[in-house]
Amino acid sequence: MEHAITRTAFVSTFPPRRCGIATFTSDLSRATGNREIVALHPPGQTLPYPAVVHHRIRRDEPSDYMRVARSLGACVDVVSIQHEYGIWGGEDGEAVLNFVGALDVPAVATLHTVLQAPTPRQRAILVELVKMVPAVVVMSGSAARLLTSAYGVDPARIDIIPHGVPDVPMVRSETVKLSLGLEDRRVILSFGLLGPGKGYELALEALAAVVEKHPSACYVIVGATHPELALREGEAYRESLIDIIARRGLVDHVRFVDRFVSRAELTRWLESADVFVTPYPNLDQIVSGTLSYAMGAGRAIVSTPYAYATELLADGRGVLVPPASPGALAAALNGLLEDAGFRGEVGRRAYEYSRRMIWPEVGAQYRRLLARVAADVPTPVRAIVPTERLAAASA
Q1: Could you give the 3-state DSSP secondary structure of residue 344?
Q2: What are the φ/ψ torsions at residue 329 (nearest 5 degrees)?
Q3: Which residues partner with 278 through β-bridges?
Q4: Fewer beta carbons under 10 A from the terminal one: N or C of the chain?
Q5: β-sheet bridge partners, residue 56
Q6: Preceding peptide of 322 cis, ω within 30°
Q7: Interval 152-202: pLDDT, tens
Q8: Can you give the pLDDT at residue 1?
Q9: Do domains 8-164+359-394 and 174-356 have the same CATH topology?
Q10: Strand partners for 83
């Protein structure tokens, strides 16, 4: 039986900011209910936040962290911290420690990044954050094992709650393709904010061999360029991909959807896909919202064996290929495209597994955790973490 929580503050980036953690927090807070939002605001941007955002913290303004943290005690029972180094202020996001130390209510930290090989300072920040909160959430067993083995975290303090996904029906791709101008095409899909590190180069190299066997193949890449990358470099990265496409003679086989799409539109793109691909080169990646969403739509998935994919796609829920191998990726894509029965079975297994990941289920798990923390943890003592303490820990 769930205990009622008067209110939960979610501290994170938040829409209309365009990033995966902002979208995650919007969905999570809605699924959990009884919320208010503290938006971590990027410098140099004007964002029209919705009314649910009651507080803003300018990322590089230390006084904002203290002011907002001390105000939350009057209006919430518990705080949900979304942690990724880049969204918090200070070196390696160290401002999260002073924020949590200034709270008068307990906090739960959801860790979106657990690095296999962190710098000493990154490790020190994460270890200190975990010490300061009564519970931490990760989204996979591999992340929990890494926290225990590499960071010395007590397993009893770790909750594994999966990345949430929309609850949508599993549909045949042919029923959606016509509305997207993809009729008679074999559709391979990737989505997410565009930028280096996603492995698109590998997918494009593999696509040449796919097109030889499947001339109707079309690789659709959905997503705007990452806003921070666009500020620094404009569209240089997308243009580099366009150059690869031109050199490989793939102009008629690649389609960019160069915008940040709504959830409804994203669902349609996912439903149109015959195969979804995450060719990430970083094998330490502990979570992928894009892979989670593809599973939730019942797509057949091909992926490099990064930590999250290896765990979620086990037992025939997807196809794993070696990193940096266009030939292996092409063979896996061709195998799924030419065998509808195999493709359907892989997608069905992914879909069935994802039923535990739909947002109502994830929201219920968070409600139970947040209620437990609010009820069982005494009011914390304010403690500002001095820079020299961090320096000593990271030495």
Answers
A1: helix
A2: -65, -45
A3: 303
A4: N
A5: 39
A6: no
A7: 999 999 999 999 999 999 999 999 999 999 999 999 999 999 999 999 999
A8: 44
A9: yes
A10: 111
Asked if 90 contacts 105 with a C-beta cutoff of 8 angstroms, the reply is no
Coil, helix or strand at residue 126? helix
Domain 174-356 fold: Rossmann fold (3.40.50)
CB of 160 within 8 A of CB of 138? yes
Q: With beta carbons less than 8 A apart as the criterion, state whether 262 and 299 touch.
A: no
**Chain centre distance of CA 390:** 27
Give the homologous superfamily in CATH for domain 8-164+359-394.
Glycogen Phosphorylase B; (3.40.50.2000)
Taking CA atoms, 310 is separated from 40, 189, 260, 283, 356, in Å, by 32, 19, 28, 9, 18
pLDDT in tens, 60-111: 999 999 999 999 999 999 999 999 999 999 999 999 999 999 999 999 999 9
Mean pLDDT value of segment 26-50: 93
Q: Are 15 and 22 in contact (CB under 8 A)?
A: yes
Sequence ranges of the domains in the chain = 8-164+359-394, 174-356
Q: What is the pLDDT of residues 3-37, one digit of tens each?
A: 455 699 999 999 999 889 999 999 999 999 889 99
Q: What are phi and psi of 288, to 5 degrees?
A: -145, 110
The separation between the first and the last C-alpha atoms of the chain, rounded to the nearest angstrom, is 46
Lowest mean per-residue pLDDT among 45-49, 200-204, 234-238, 253-257: 45-49
CA distance 334 to 296: 23
Structure-token match 């209620």, residue found: 371
- 0.90 surpassed by pTM: yes
Question: What is each CA distance from 275 to 73, 166, 201, 213, in whole angstroms?
Answer: 48, 19, 17, 15
Nearest-angstrom CA–CA distance, 228 and 214: 36
Cβ neighbours for 58, distance < 8 A, ≥ 6 positions apart: 41, 43, 64
